[in-house]
Amino acid sequence: MKTIQHWIDGRIAEGASGRYGVVTNPATGEQTGQVALANTAEVDRAVASAAEAFPSWSNSSLAQRTQVLFNYRELLNAHRDELASLITAEHGKVHSDALGEVARGLEIVELACGIPQLLKGETSTQVSNRVDVESIRQPLGVVAGITPFNFPAMVPLWMFPLAIACGNTFVLKPSEKDPSAALRLVELASEAGVPDGVVNLVHGDKEAVDRLLEHPDIAAVSFVGSTPIAEHVHRTASANGKRVQALGGAKNHMLVLPDANLDQAADAAVSAAYGSAGERCMAVSVVVAVDPIGDELVDKIAERARALRVGPGTDPASEMGPLITREHRDKVASYVPKAREQGAEVVVDGTELKVEGYENGFFIGVSLLDKVTPEMDAYQDEIFGPVLSVVRVPSYEEGLKLINSSRWGNGTAIFTRDGGAARRFKLEVQAGMVGVNVPIPVPVGYHSFGGWKDSLFGDHHIYGTDGIHFYTRGKVTTTRWPDPSDGGIDLGFPSNS
Ligand code: NAD
Q: What domain of life does the native source organism fall in (predicted)?
């Protein structure tokens, strides 16, 4: 059984707290490792290392940073398969999906490789006589990143490559449930030439997180995880004077209009609802079917859902792997009988699925609930598993009203062939990311990612232009090179002429 340690000051740092978390292989249910859980003193060591590295790293040339990031890109590319295997072993998602996660993370490293272009300032000459104004953006200092279990490589890559490209140093606190991929990412960054102390990693739970949120030498916190913890992180870190972006949970709706191609809509719903066993913040968890297509759409989704192959992520034939823990599996399963009791129609019930040879794994089959109404628990909660609800509505307007009354606003999608309706939806829907005939509208690296309402606390989305702004602060310099004739005392407010 392996022990997964911290990474401080450019090397492995053995856990000193005496506390460890359990790491399991969700496909077999067996414990495969233990992860060191940092105490306050260990977090402080990581922050001290980052703080010490900041003056020289923030002063490094753009050419130097770019070189390191290009090296990093090459190394990640060469280690895609290894990283995907680490993800599958601890998260459970199928290997092809894990490879997809690494690829999306790589996009942000590629964005960071363009940092000289992204950090360009602005200059206005002669704003007044012999006066020029220049705006630049400078790094903040030490930034902390706290990440969820469901994208153990991609979400850390959303954060630290861009943060360090901007000249910050970093302390990462990945999920303690599947920590090995993040540790490998940080080791590879060091191999790529990131100097010691620029990226540190501490594993841990609430104790480590809360120390990061209050540490006086942390300037900013990027968080991705569930809504209650995002709220806690935002509140606590803000109260401690830090800049915060805290991305939370979701309940993403897919509105299907009667004119949509129903086969394509059903394909999209199944892929987006059950991919990664529904453990994606951009998973579609509610299909909103506009009358009269409900019956036909449900039939098409059910037919596809029943054909999905569930099995270990290491088997290339598996399309969906297990859930992250036994407790989570049982919680997800409980929504199906509850929905039945509350009046929903259970069209596909995957709760009894057993995978031969993997009886102790945290597997669950896919479930499809029809005629779900907004009061039901299955509709109210973020289930975060392969349970798809269908809500029927009489019109586009009713569908929009339903979506806009959700407490979350991460992603949403419309399926239609009507350009005018799609345009209306794009403008009227209250969500941060909208898909038109695209079920999982995760933006590319050069557009920012983030939700509205309870899906994001803070002012900045993650990566893209918002990421650059989040990891830097503005400075404006006003310069005059006076003529001999300039001068004289004037107590009036400076005016430009
Ligand atoms: P989580 O909130 O349980 O954990 C996220 C991080 O917070 C982990 O590093 C964890 O160690 C830490 N944490 C957990 N409990 C804490 C506490 N009480 N105090 C301080 N820190 C704590 O989330 P998760 O279960 O790992 O991930 C799934 C959730 O993340 C889902 O709700 C999903 O929607 C959300 N998510 C959102 C996005 C997004 O972009 N909006 C992306 C991925 C995941």
A: Bacteria
